[in-house]
Design goal:
Elements lengths: L33 H25 L2 E2 L7 H7 L1 E2 L1 H16 L2 H6 L1 H15 L15 H10 L1 H9 L11 E2 L2 E2 L9 H19 L3 H5 L2 H11 L3 E5 L8 H5 L6 H8 L12 H5 L5 E5 L18 H18 L8 H23 L3 E3 L2 E5 L2 E2 L1 H35 L5 H4 L11 H20 L7 H11 L3 H14 L2 H18 L2 H14 L4 H13 L3 H14 L4 H14 L4 H11 L4 H13 L3 H14 L3 H9 L4
Parallel strand pairs: 2-3
Antiparallel strand pairs: 1-4, 5-6, 7-8, 8-9
Length: 631
């Protein structure tokens, strides 16, 4: 005879505990508020779409009503719509509780939709309960909204105020500037919506990933508005079974007379399904004033918790900003899923019987087909994390090498070969940076457009201008706006030094098409035109440059030299303006001299070379070496 809770083959099966039913109804009632909440969340998304369409049509609109925009208020003093909304939402939460999340968040709408789809497929998301991962939202919130002010306090000059002067940024013309591109936004929504719900429960991302929820959860503890209970409660458990915020409602109202879990988003489903109308939302003592009792039922041991937390940290730093594509919130979503996958994989390996949803993954020590599928998914998911970590490490090391450079761009670009200005120790750092960028590029699944210009600059400093030009062209193909203009400018400047003036002209014209106000490109294009013999156009180009900034030393010197060659009468005025703007710096004067020498304005060039030698006698030897080199 089979034992209770076992089948005849002695395989363990899950035995469901009955739900008390004193109302005479066999099933849990359908929430009467769920449709109203769905309507509110759909309306939120429709308003977001209308906001974007209005910006497309009119070109200007209210800045994004997104809490993350508040970072710019704290860091830069930008008062925007996101800051105002976030501030009002926190104030409302301090009074009414965490309503904003449950009724006004577009990510909640996405997660609820995903949970609804899974239920239609016969899969009810079950909450993953981790004590340590619960701190992730608050840590992320502190990093996003508090750390900028702390960092400013540590690094700002004593004369500057702690909080920057507030400026009005409520209206914007670039609505999408702070959002990821669509190609990133779609997988971000898929991971933080469907994937987190599938593995972690109905509001998995809210529970373990949302930084805004980190602040809302703290504010909720002080709110007098809470879900409360009357004496009519008979502990049927319908409230907990219905709750999509993964709160143990029946246990909390029994123990405290209210829901104290800050994860409660006041969806009101529990109130709606209570067969005795014992639950209600009302004002009273906030949960922070209630003495909490330690929960006894933790499904994860402390060893499990440490493994889960370590997996999260490693995954987060492996994927955050990899390829300059994965934003912070997406990295958090990936990392919390990784933490669950690691935990489940270890449990699957150590437990002879294991299941996920209603799929048996392992039974009596044998892996089922579903178990093998899960292991394959785990291997792919963790493998991608490891691969991303490898790429991210080498990108980081390459960036470190780039950031450590001290050679000024103007000096490096003054001649075709900048290696004479690079010390052996710096040269070693440059070669290391090139090796790291190369490994990241070779192993990468995507192109890091942000790293390409840095990689190109290291190659140029290493004496490989053709490789640098190749990388800059690759970057410009994938860039737009200011970033593309800068890549094209550097490409044009390098081609000028190599004497490839026709190609330089094409690059610099393309740079100015992207950014007409890029004065350096205009100045460089003037040099190109002069070298090609088009002196009138070169003069006009330098004249346009100084109209944008009258203190441009090189352009004013070019105009002075060109005036002398072309017989123009105002050359002395340009020379005086250049003299007034030239600092008493040997290296700066040397760079100016080299640029003038490049276009054959030797008299002016010699004046700056002599001045450099007067300021720093070590440049006298360089003058002698320069005289022996052909122009």
């Amino acid at each position: 005879m089979a034992k209770s809770g076992c089948d005849p083959n002695n395989k363990k099966v899950r035995k469901e505990l009955p739900v008390l039913n004193t109302s005479g109804k066999a099933d849990i009632a359908h929430s009467r508020t769920s449709r109203w909440r769905a309507f509110a969340l759909i309306l939120v998304n429709l308003l977001m779409v209308a906001h974007i369409i209005q910006w497309w049509l009119m070109g200007t609109t209210v800045s994004p009503i997104e809490p993350s925009e508040a970072m710019f208020t704290l860091r830069d003093g930008f008062v925007n719509a996101g800051f105002i909304f976030f501030s009002l939402a926190i104030l409302a939460t301090l009074i009414f509780g965490r309503f904003v999340c449950g009724w006004g968040c577009h990510v909640i709408a996405l997660q609820d939709l995903c949970a609804w789809i899974l239920k239609k497929m016969g899969l009810k998301p079950r909450p993953f309960r981790s004590r340590l991962l619960m701190y992730v939202p608050l840590i992320a919130a502190l990093y996003m909204f508090v750390w900028p002010t702390v960092s400013r306090a540590l690094t700002k000059p004593p004369s500057e105020p702690l909080i920057p002067q507030f400026t009005n940024h409520i209206i914007t013309t670039d609505f999408w500037a702070t959002f990821p591109p669509v190609a990133v936004a779609i997988p971000f929504l898929f991971i933080c919506g469907f994937v987190t719900v599938y593995f972690l429960g109905s509001k998995g991302f809210c529970t373990y990933g949302c930084p805004y929820g980190g602040f809302f959860a703290v504010a909720d503890k002080f709110a007098p508005g809470r879900i409360r209970v009357t004496d009519a409660c008979n502990e049927c458990g319908h409230c907990t079974a219905t709750c999509t915020s993964n709160v143990k409602v029946h246990a909390e109202v029994k123990q405290y007379g209210m829901v104290v879990d800050a994860g409660c988003m006041k969806c009101m489903d529990c109130v709606s399904v209570c067969p005795n109308d014992a639950l209600y939302w009302g004002f009273g003592k906030p949960s922070v004033a209630i003495e909490k009792k330690a929960a006894a039922d933790h499904p994860l041991t402390w060893t499990d918790e440490i493994i889960v937390a370590a997996s999260f940290v490693l995954s987060y730093f492996a994927v955050w900003n990899v390829y300059q594509l994965v934003p912070m919130l997406m990295a958090i979503g990936i990392a919390i899923v990784t933490a669950f996958v690691v935990y489940k994989t270890l449990r699957l390996a150590s437990s002879p019987n294991n299941a996920f949803y209603h799929f048996a993954l392992r039974s009596s020590g044998k892996f089922t087909a579903y178990g093998l599928i899960f292991l394959a998914f785990s291997a792919i998911w963790l493998g991608l994390n490891i691969h991303s970590g490898y790429v991210r490490y080498h990108e980081y090391r390459g960036n470190q090498a780039f950031e450590s450079l001290t050679i000024p761009d103007e000096l490096a670009l003054a001649e075709a070969d900048p290696r004479q200005w690079i010390e052996s120790e710096t040269a070693e750092i440059i070669r290391g940076g090139i090796a790291n960028y190369s490994r990241a590029a070779d192993a990468g699944l995507f192109t890091n457009v942000d790293a390409l210009p840095k990689y190109a600059w290291l190659e140029y400093l290493n004496g490989e201008p053709d490789r640098a030009l190749e990388l800059l062209a690759k970057a410009a193909e994938r860039q737009s706006g200011e970033a593309k203009a800068i890549s094209l400018y550097y490409s044009g400047a390098i081609r000028n030094r190599l004497g490839r003036f026709q190609e330089a002209k094409a690059d610099l014209n393309a740079a100015l098409a992207e950014r007409p106000d890029l004065i350096l490109a205009r100045e460089e294009l003037g040099e190109t035109l002069w070298q090609m013999g088009d002196r009138e156009e070169a003069f006009k180009m330098w004249l346009d440059a100084v109209l944008g900034n009258q203190n441009l030393v090189i352009s004013n010197n070019f105009l002075a030299g060109a005036s002398a060659v072309m017989g123009k009468s105002d050359g002395s005025a340009y020379e005086r303006r250049a003299e007034q703007a030239t600092p008493r710096d040997a290296l700066f004067n040397w760079v100016v001299g080299l640029r003038l020498r490049n276009v054959g304005m030797d008299e002016l060039a010699d004046k700056h070379f002599r001045r450099a030698a007067l300021i720093d006698s070590s440049f006298r030897q360089r003058i002698e070496q320069l005289k022996q080199r052909p122009q």
